[in-house]
Amino acid sequence: MLRTTAFFRSARAPPKRLVKYTINHTTRTYSTVPLKLPDKESTLAKFDFPLATHTINDVTKALKSLLKNKDQKITLNGHINRKPRIRATMSFAEIRDAHGDTSQIVMAPGLTDQKFFDLLKSTTTEDSVSVSGHLQLKQNKEGETDRQWELVVENYQILNSSNLDAARLDKLKHASPEELPPQFRYLQLRTPYFQNALKTRSRIAQLIRNIFVENHGFTEIETPLLFKSTPEGAREFLVPTRSPEKFYALPQSPQQYKQILMSSGFTRYFQIAKCFRDEDLRSDRQPEFTQVDLEMSYINSSDQVGIVVEDLIHSVWNKIRKVPTYKVNEEGYLEAIAFDTSAPNEKLHFSKLSYTEALTKYGIDKPDLRSKLQFIDLSKFLVPSKSNNGEFPILEACVLKAAFDPAASKKYKVPHNLVDPLNYTRRRPIVIPIHSKDDANAWYNKFIEKGVFSPTAEFNEDEFHRSLNLKEGDILAFSTRAELPYENPTPLGKFRQLAIQEFPTKWNREIINKETGEISQQSKREDIFVGTWVVDFPLFNPIETTAESSDDFPTYDYTSFESTHHPFTMAKLEDYDLLETDPLKVRGEHYDLVVNGVEVGGGSRRIHDACLQKYIFEKVLRITNYNDLFGHLLHALSMGCPPHAGLALGFDRLCAMLIGSPSIRDVIAFPKNQSGADPVVDSPTAVSEKTLNQYFITTKI
Amino acid sequence: MLRTTAFFRSARAPPKRLVKYTINHTTRTYSTVPLKLPDKESTLAKFDFPLATHTINDVTKALKSLLKNKDQKITLNGHINRKPRIRATMSFAEIRDAHGDTSQIVMAPGLTDQKFFDLLKSTTTEDSVSVSGHLQLKQNKEGETDRQWELVVENYQILNSSNLDAARLDKLKHASPEELPPQFRYLQLRTPYFQNALKTRSRIAQLIRNIFVENHGFTEIETPLLFKSTPEGAREFLVPTRSPEKFYALPQSPQQYKQILMSSGFTRYFQIAKCFRDEDLRSDRQPEFTQVDLEMSYINSSDQVGIVVEDLIHSVWNKIRKVPTYKVNEEGYLEAIAFDTSAPNEKLHFSKLSYTEALTKYGIDKPDLRSKLQFIDLSKFLVPSKSNNGEFPILEACVLKAAFDPAASKKYKVPHNLVDPLNYTRRRPIVIPIHSKDDANAWYNKFIEKGVFSPTAEFNEDEFHRSLNLKEGDILAFSTRAELPYENPTPLGKFRQLAIQEFPTKWNREIINKETGEISQQSKREDIFVGTWVVDFPLFNPIETTAESSDDFPTYDYTSFESTHHPFTMAKLEDYDLLETDPLKVRGEHYDLVVNGVEVGGGSRRIHDACLQKYIFEKVLRITNYNDLFGHLLHALSMGCPPHAGLALGFDRLCAMLIGSPSIRDVIAFPKNQSGADPVVDSPTAVSEKTLNQYFITTKI
């Protein structure tokens, strides 16, 4: 005998009750009626069923030959894709197989046993079923057969039933991520978009591993996840142990272990590694994330790392995304990279951009180079009145050419997004639409009068106009920056990002065909991926001291330093002496790989000389307890560790870019939400006092 | 100017000071003298050096053509393999490259600059160096050239120095794992044995992934490591969060997430996954370990999982270990498995062994089938006097045929290992050497007299003798067991394991050549790998209630049950009704893969029917809070989750077997020690009060 409860039903239980779910699992209610063993026949039928003979696509491809053989029995297994149509004579349903393909199944009197009609009545969307029968061509409205096939049911089994009504399920399946009650992630994952997203991620990982191993002789080595707390960077997750007062920490990256591996004689290490950061979760950060991590020893230039990384990057774009990668050539055009996926790379294809050039041209260290927008230094002509004691002396401008039609409206207002204070960390650029010739010629007088800036001694009106070349319909933005900005992005850099978002089709770089010299516009912008190496970062930053409340200039303590990336990065050899005399002038052997304004990866040559590493800890960074924190690394370096360099790629972000999604959540099966919770399993949870006692900890509020 | 400190030296600092290390990192002392920036020239030389033109093996292979070109300059980079020999005229050193090959380098007056001679004097074992020069053939003692080459040094650079004297380093490098101060793991990892171990592990992972993806269409999906505490199995590591009283737990396996993935429409999932268990560490367990995890949906038999798993197993043995796998055929011979690595498998090759057969023949659920030792049931003849109220009524024997030479010594004593109480959990078998015909014929009388056992009514002396067939030189062991033993291994099962260890060359199964019928002995025992599927486990065990102090029979509460493996395993369909009437009689759809007595993997068909799963939780296992613990899984199952089954392989153990090591530590770069500490980085550590406050926890002792 069959029991139904509020929550669980067996396949045959008629009729279905609509169960309401709330988002929080803990409010689910279950029956408290004592359960009996579920009905034997219907339960065992869920385990005892024929294997699929074909996928739906198999059938479509071999349709002709399959139709010839009248005795050919076909079994399809999958989910019911939408509510079956029950008719007095024929009934219809749609089955979706594991590849996301769908096909019609039909129950026909005489051909299909009556019991299967009854079973179909109790079937609803997203039930898992097994269907066997023979193929026939569908008839169109005029009664003619067409090329499409359907399966006439001879056997029908419900392998498991979904427990919601079809209408609600249909809505849930196609809900946007924001609308979907998040514990229903598994319904969403069944849709073709997410199936493709995670399968593509798997293919990317596989391709990357094959390139590492087969093209470059790398060894994949797993490093521990129960690591040591080295509280220098982001906040780390702790793991209590059953030794009183002793904790592991989950690693932010395998950085230290991979350097120890270099001292262990491995010359080419990689790992697709889980990493952890307990940071406040922005919309697109996850507390656990995946990193493609590599390190190479006995190399004397970062280019050797870059060549391997470019092999990965060009290959995944060519083979997975099936579009070329682009670089910016010397004339500022985009040039498709001619990359031979069959042969290992021997040189860098992307060009290099120095930190200083990136900040002065684009106001950020990860510029989106699809756009040709860049800044004009006005400091020859104008001096800002407010420069925070001369720390921000450069006045720079960005012109959005022909942003609007000056004839169309006299009242054109700059899009709010470009000037919204919420989009800026601190001060904003001043943004002016150029409505008229007057505006173009005399816009600055007003600001001189108001005392925003004043002309320099060399101010020359003609030269000034030539440098800006303003026309009606342009939008002008200007702001201040430091000579070498630590502010990153600068106010104008942020403005540039917002302008690219706001006007995605404007000011894009043209594409040059290297063979023919032909120049064309970007046609499908979503298929354009422009990469660059950003190099020559300052090795150290002054420590920022800006007050929380400040909405003006950031302030710095120029006598205390922190590593721009991490303390293990080597200085550029030509800047070596500056480590002693002027650390802020030292450039690091760090390199970032930036694609379309996203930092895809970053790496560096490392300090393998323990004596120099110790100097950096003690004298530059003034880390007093470096022996406790990093003694293990110094020890490993001091034992004949060879020179080495490496890089890490953000794997989640890379996968998201490749499937064309702005969100890494789309390529993670079970992402955490913004409170760090997993709504599917309802973690984190409270833990019993007894368990905590084993770890010698207690909670407090 | 160059500074040396107690700990860190630059390459040129003469002469080296021997620094003593203690095992505990925290006792290392560093100089407190203020540091200056290390000497520029020698430090930068460590970063600016020529790349290797060849590996040593490259040179050996291309020696003839390389020698022809007199101008050919060769650069080798690597470690100095042992202390250089400094002579008044010529000096010699040995360089080891990253592949573990070694070559002699020679400094010759006239050819090598004097400064390099001086540099070689300050060189010691395990310094990292770059050497350039030209090739010549070595001269043997008679002054004749032989086929071996050496490199005449024209440029020599120390890329990093090791900071211990050569003698100590040599000793450390070749120390056994027990002797090596464990923070020197990186020296050990440089040796060819460990280089091979970790490179082989990487190759195995790569091969396994390729088989999953290319042969079987699996998708690799990463599941979260920040999971939820579900305190049903082993002790879990907790991860405090910045929400008061909320904890993640690190997963013991991806079991629940992978079942949710089955409900998410993925039909073939795999992952090489990190798992965590906070258990008391036996010699060969690690708190973090790696598992090859797979799950398949829409399958109706565990064989479909087994076929994929056998593809992995036969392939890694064939391609990595380069030996065949064996099964036990029906006559009890070993038969090499004919496996075509180029084509996916279509059937199971290993045979199946039921739990009952395994326990009654071999006394354990993971028998080492290389040995043909098996047990003789004596219950037809003898009844034990002590049977714990009839719970252990079976008297069984194991005979070690011709274990000793009865003529050689009248005083032969059974090896202590076989009878050492420390080797047994509770009661031990009685073990008797058969010294004489008398012993063979009348050994049991003594035990009948002593009341150890008594003859049955059907006791027939001839039949009894035939069944045991004892001869002088045999060792007889006998003990008791239950009808269906939950004791696993049984006392005699443990005895069998010890006997195999003690007499590795005896009682091994013969190998049959399937083509010719020829029968041969096992020749290289370390190359024989015998696999079997163990099936038909009881789905539930009675909960053990044995008192800690007991050294006799284990006791059970036969009215309360626990899952033999985990609560998600399906019952055998034919035992379905027993779930209600007699749960202990239910056999599970669980299958273990056992190779040479090691459980390589285990898996099952799962319960995909939420109603049945709930019944098992509530009625059989009496888990009252199953909604809190497993509500997420019930929810996922109830949403049309298809039938599914899977398996997990212990990857560390698999790799250790394949490199022929008894210890998983040999295939883990940085294993934890038996206290759960990582001596290389000195984790776990204390954490500041400030950090703990962020997680709303405090420590207590």
Summarize the structure.
Chain A is an alpha+beta fold and 701 residues long. In chain A, β11 and β12 (334-336) form a beta hairpin. In chain A, α16 runs antiparallel to α17 (626-637).
Could you walk me through the main structural features you see in this protein, from its secondary elements to its overall organization?
- In chain A, helix 7 (192-216) crosses helix 18 and helix 16 runs antiparallel to helix 17 (626-637).
- The first copy, chain A, is α+β, with helices and mostly antiparallel strands.
- In chain A, strand 2 and strand 3 form a beta hairpin.
- Chain A starts with 39 loop residues before the first helix and ends with a strand.
- Chain A folds into three domains: 56-181, OB fold (Dihydrolipoamide Acetyltransferase, E2P), CATH 2.40.50.140; 196-351 and 534-667, Bira Bifunctional Protein, Domain 2 (BirA Bifunctional Protein, domain 2); 373-507, Gyrase A, domain 2 (2-Layer Sandwich).
- Mean pLDDT of chain A is 90; it is low at 1-33.
- Helices cover 26% and strands 23% of the residues of chain A.
- Chain A is built from 19 helices and 28 strands.
- In chain A, the strands form seven sheets. An eight-stranded mixed beta sheet of chain A has the order 6-9-10-27-26-25-22-13, with helices on both faces. The first copy, chain A, has a five-stranded mixed barrel with strand order 1-2-3-5-4. Chain A has a four-stranded mixed beta sheet with strand order 11-12-20-21, with no helix packed on it.
- Strand 28 (697-699) of chain A pairs antiparallel with strand 28 (697-699) of chain B.
